[in-house]
């Protein structure tokens, strides 16, 4: 250390007052634990856990909590049992919306994996060493910028006179409706979430032993066989960790379907927002929130039971969602 | 497959990288940066309804007259700085609590509660919860509720970044300082904190940019008098897109991308 001479400078006299108290504290591990973690545990409980728990409370009261009666009518409105029994799927609009949201989340997750595999295989195994850091940085940077801006950027690309349809028109091809459709939601969500898969998958590709690939090639395996038999199985844990994250974040997406999805790309979180923003039915909105959280936690639980290391994806990058 | 490989070999492409893989990588970068490029192009487009693109800096010049946008930008910067300071201090303290100190023993449960749950629960649910919470307290919306929401939202990220540094920290440095006669306070100030500085600065920068770009929490707890920039942009995009929105977006992108580059380079993976 360059400052070794400063280390003991001036601290040789017996400590007194505040300093002494801090030093005694440093010997008490319980006190140290309390002072370091106490404030944040308190803050998080008051300003995170209680607000979220408040939604659970709202979901089981007719109207104002603790003043009005306890009820399950809000959950019954979501899952109308008589409609379930008579198989009147048309009478279950909220269940259908949730199902469609989860369907969109699955499609987005699969597309993200398809996009992530080639680029991470390239970055982790083939990219020149001196470019590697820069190329990875280029993936991370958009991740840390405003997802709202990156999402609305698709409006001039997907709209009826937008860039894609303009290009199609110039080629003499028929235009396709993209903005405010199901595919608008899908494209926007893939764009926003694909780094969640790319980053953990890159980490797996990077740690993949290149000599395994060489050995397989030497033994006569074709490129596709190498990928199928060696690369894919060894990098699957990283891919799945990212995929789980994309799925749960997509299932609760609000901004992207609201800007790009129109009615056919509408998702569950939008109907929750409506209950608070315009319908002023907080109790029903709270019930729908509880259902969404249950779906998210349930998916995580299933993923962990399947042995997917969900924690893998959360460290790298992480911006804004 | 072997035919394709042979063809590639004859074209001289098979040495290290197959052409397909390289093409896919290039296309992915086009996909990642295309929309950002579109924003940039649109921000310099003179014709508001015209079909032809013509260069003009007028939307940037117009920004100076848009008091609403400047005010929101200023507010977002202020919120970002306050959130950055609070979140980083909490993160440094908590990182030591989680990584170094023996008590409490059940660190797994604690880090699930402090980090994993806030990172995985939908932000929209938290935004709504906070909105209901502050309404119940009669505190309404505004600067303080946004700051509180953003601190809770950035804390897990900041803590992960600092904790990674604490885990990697070479303890022999601290032991050497103690052997040379430094007490724990001096060691912490002169050895531990300087060694951790890259991670602390990275955590601070990440906290700032996460808060600066955050939309959903602000959307639910911002009031009429205090509208952060992302909420303002949302309003402009939901209505008829005004051309200034592209110019102010470029300003936002430049700020957050610069910070992201610095923070990512500082951070140890």
From TrEMBL, chain A:
User: Where does it reside?
Assistant: Cell membrane
Domain (ABC transmembrane type-1) spans: 98-303
Keyword GTP-binding present in the record's keywords: the answer is no
Q: Which UniProt keywords apply?
A: Cell membrane, Membrane, Transmembrane, Transmembrane helix, Transport
- Which top-rank group of organisms is this from? Archaea
Q: Coiled-coil region(s) at which residues?
A: none
Assigned protein family: Belongs to the binding-protein-dependent transport system permease family. CysTW subfamily.
Full protein name: Spermidine/putrescine transport system permease protein
| Annotated organism of origin | Halorubrum vacuolatum
From TrEMBL, chain B:
Gene Ontology biological-process annotations? transmembrane transport
- Ranges for domain ABC transmembrane type-1 come to 73-263
Keywords, sorted A to Z: Cell membrane, Membrane, Transmembrane, Transmembrane helix, Transport
Tell me which SUPFAM superfamilies the record gives: MetI-like
Q: Name one GO cellular component term.
A: plasma membrane
Q: Which InterPro entries match?
A: Bact_Polyamine_Transport, MetI-like, MetI-like_sf
Record's bilayer topology term: Multi-pass membrane protein
Q: Which residues cross the membrane?
A: 20-42, 73-98, 110-134, 146-167, 246-266
Where it sits in the cell: the answer is: Cell membrane
Q: Does the keyword Transmembrane apply?
A: yes
Tell me, what's a Pfam family for it? BPD_transp_1
Which family is this sequence assigned to? Belongs to the binding-protein-dependent transport system permease family. CysTW subfamily.
Protein name, as recorded? Spermidine/putrescine transport system permease protein/putrescine transport system permease protein
Source species of the chain: Halorubrum vacuolatum
